[in-house]
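Bug #77: duplicate submission created two jobs. Keeping one. Sequence:
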Amino acid sequence: MIALSSTFGFLLISWTAPEAFATDWQGVLLFLLKALIVFMAWIFELIAFKNYYMSSLKPISAIRVVISFVVSLIIFNEPVIWWKFFGVVVIFVGLLLLNYFDRKQLKNILVNKEQCFNRLEQKRENDNLNRKRILAIIFFILSCCLNVISGILDKLFLDSYTPSQMQFWFIFFIAVLGWIAFFVLCIKNKKILITKKDWKNWLIYLSGAILIIADRLLFIALTDPNVLVSGVSILKQLSTVISVIFGGILYKEPNLKYKIVFLVFILVGIVIVLV
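Kept job's structure:
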């Protein structure tokens, strides 16, 4: 639960309040903008995962590397090296292969369902599955684009503000947005969507602590002028490996071993861009 984990994370960094309150109002508004972008990225990602397989969608996040690479050349004038373009091509090929295999796999699923439905019912089922897949891909790509924008803003904001100031206001606004979304959903469903079991779920608090530690390390790294935005984006892709493997195993998603092959192909491209 975003609201609960981010609130716990905010409590962990509340000791930086004196430094955070020294931020000018323009900075606070900028951090609110970043929080809105990240929050929408999370919402889009959750919608995507709700409609399709995590192990199929996560490798698509490699598109962040491509976008970050191009934007970094334009905004931050990062050095242009020819083999990095080759790495970008390798990533695109990997994504195309994954998409082709995914569509083929979806067709096999639809064919297998044919025995259980008449033609009209099967057509409806086919249209529904295809619509969900396309919807999931669109929302996931939107999420990736918003995450890239957030990463660029991090680098720009940290030229004027400290990591403590940015993290304090960012996590504060994320917690506020999380609780607003929570109460809206409660009103919509006409019931309280939280139980005693949720309050006792240690994973929620662990995720909040991990978010705080990861963001602090990221913000500190970005204060170094020698750290490239494209390089940070590439390192973030290491999380994709964990998501595909453990997500696929946890939810028993089909043909996981083939998706891992395409993931390795994409990671090769990422390594080429990184070196």
